[in-house]
Amino acid sequence: MSDWGPVFVAVILFVLLTPGLLIQIPGKNKVVEFGTMQTSSVSIFIHSIIYFALIAIFLLAIGVHMYLG
């Protein structure tokens, strides 16, 4: 059996933390902006740090596992 938990967690976090899609930290005019569809290098850096922290928590600390098949 293959473990699909890390795949699902990574895809969901990637979609949710794409800068400018749902939320952008820091924004162009404010600290947090919603649905701007714009990005900056600082925003990409901040979102990648948040992504790494959350994926480490979900996969290493909690240990999310999904077995299909």
Quick take:
The protein has helices at 5-16, 41-62, and strands at residues 2-3, 23-24, 33-34, 67-68. It is mainly alpha-helical and 69 residues long. It has one domain.
Structure description:
49% of the residues lie in helices and 12% in strands. It is mainly alpha-helical and 69 residues long. The chain has one domain (2-68). A two-stranded antiparallel sheet has the order 1-4. Strands 2-3 form a two-stranded antiparallel ribbon. The mean pLDDT is 90.
User: How far apart lie the N and C ends?
Assistant: 6 Å
Categorize the overall geometry: elongated
Mean pLDDT: 90
Number of strands: 4
Helices and strands, in N-to-C order? Answer: EHEEHE
Strand content: 5-15%
Number of helices: 2
Helix content percent band: 40-55%
Structural class: mainly alpha
Chart the SSEs and their pairings.
Blueprint (H helix, E strand, L loop, with lengths): L1 E2 L1 H12 L6 E2 L8 E2 L6 H22 L4 E2 L1
Antiparallel strand pairs: 1-4, 2-3
Helix pairs in contact: 1-2
